[in-house]
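Re: the request from the purification team.
They wanted to know what the chain is likely to look like in 3D before they choose a buffer screen. I agreed to run a prediction and write the result into the notebook, where they can find it.
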Amino acid sequence: MHRVRVSTAAILAIVSIGLLLACILLFPKWLYPLPSSSDLNRAKLTGKERLDVVTERLQVQNSARATLLQGLGGAVVLLGAYFTFGQLTVSRKQLQRTAEEHQEQFNLAERGQITERFTRAVDQLGGDSEDVRLGGVYALQQISRDASPESSAIHEILAAYIRIHSPWHRKHDRGAVHVEAIPRLRDSAPAVQAAMLVLGRRKREEPNLPLGLMGTDLRRLRLSDIDIPEGANLAHVLLWRSSLINASLKRANFCEAKLGWTDLRHAGLKEADLRRTEIGRA
């Protein structure tokens, strides 16, 4: 046998019709029944008096019927309002769930786009063309601004790029006699210069994680008015003829670094480690 499922609305409709019929046909007669012939005989009422009594009782029944119908109408209105409120609550929850699902799908799609952009930018860093590498650096900068959770990883990647592509080979260092002939970093390694600028232009709300830039060749670096992440490791770094005017270098480790001829005017070197640092003519 197949079970017949009756909706709540159908049940309410049946109950309402039953109550309506009861208010019209049953309840008035039950509350105010017509006097029987024996009651009228015991009251010794004449024909006109009998008619008046019956008429009066019928009017009372009609009044009761009208009152019951008004009460039933009010109950129906209240019941309808209750179910309407319930339906609105259900609809609101459904809309909220739908919005949450759409937001989750949007977040997944956005994460997918960011991952794709991130992968493409990292691939560009390894490109053969300097223009392609520059594009990769600035693409990572834009991703860092669009997706704050990725900023720490991006800064680590850029620091690693600088260490790999601009190492200081001290065994080939011939000393300060060639300072005047040193090309600007933006000419000799533009992507490295750009990566240093990106590292210094991070947003204030991004994590201030120390950067590992030790053992790098950053001669004639231009990094004025830039905030290097606090506690950056710049040990054994070659910074001849660099410009660090107004740069924030708080707690930076310059141990055994070479800062000859470097412009450090108004640079913030609070708590910086300058042990065995060469600062001749800085």
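For the purification team: The mean pLDDT is 81.
Please add any questions underneath this entry.
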